[in-house]
Amino acid sequence: MKIMSMKKIAPIALSALLLGSVAAYAEQPATEGVQETMKQSAFVQQTGKVTAVENFGEGKLFVVDHEDNLFHFYVDEKTLVFDNTGKEVDIKVGDTISLSVYANQPMIMIYPPRYTPPVVIVQTEEAGFVKVDQFDENNVSFDGELKLNVSDETVIENAKGEKVKADELKNHSAIVFYGPTTRSLPPQTAPTKIVVFPTLEDFYAEPAPDMDSEIAKIIGDDF
């Protein structure tokens, strides 16, 4: 498979490029005199099954099939990889994964699409839900779809695995692992684990590897 690259990077909204759609805030009956607004997550997601992997530089390049459409993603030591129960795992061929990418993350204009996600979730048969978003001062996700009732039993860590206080969650990016929710609007849950991780600006503080010059060589026709 040949890769056609424009070798151009543009800070565009990824929601216009992803094959999946961003989950929007559920519509509610309009209240007279109040104008409704749509809320959007700080992240966009893409899912699929891993079909191939190659070592590349300090990390790995994966190929994913999403409904017969391929895309690639790059993982290195900065990438947070968990299964849907909150366990740190390695990604392997055959895994069903979900990428979370900052909505305004810079993206290389190339086909098939290629992402550098801060978070990858590997789906398992075990029970467990995951929410990746930013949360406001009331612990409500930016898309308005989940409110967190954080308790003393909730494990809260940063990207290095260090314990942090609950107020670190405010207006920060987070991976939330949780179980049942209420039927309220928004649904509420008592999360079992929260991982707070860098903002878009912090994530790109260090230059990403330049994959354009070598990617066609590495992927070749085998993918």
3D architecture notes:
- By secondary structure, this protein is mainly beta.
- It has helices at 200-203, 212-219; strands spanning 4-10, 43-56, 59-66, 69-75, 80-83, 96-102, 107-111, 114-115, 119-122, 129-134, 147-148, 155-158, 173-178, 188-189, 193-197.
- The strands form four sheets. A seven-stranded mixed β-sheet has the order 5-9-6-2-3-4-8, with no helix packed on it. The chain has a four-stranded mixed β-sheet with strand order 10-13-15-12, with no helix packed on it. Strands 1-7 form a two-stranded antiparallel sheet.
- The longest helix has 8 residues, at 212-219.
The largest pleated sheet is described as: 7 strands, mixed
Which structural class is indicated by helix and strand composition? mainly beta
Strand order of the largest sheet: 5-9-6-2-3-4-8
Query: What's the helical proportion of residues?
Result: under 10%
Number of helices: 2
Strand content: 35-45%
The radius of gyration over CA amounts to 18 Å
- Total beta strands: 15
Terminal CA distance reads 6 Å
Low-confidence segments, given as residue ranges, are: 1-36, 211-223
Name the overall outline. Answer: globular
- Helix/strand order, N-terminal first: EEEEEEEEEEEEEEEHH
Calculate the mean pLDDT score and round it.
81
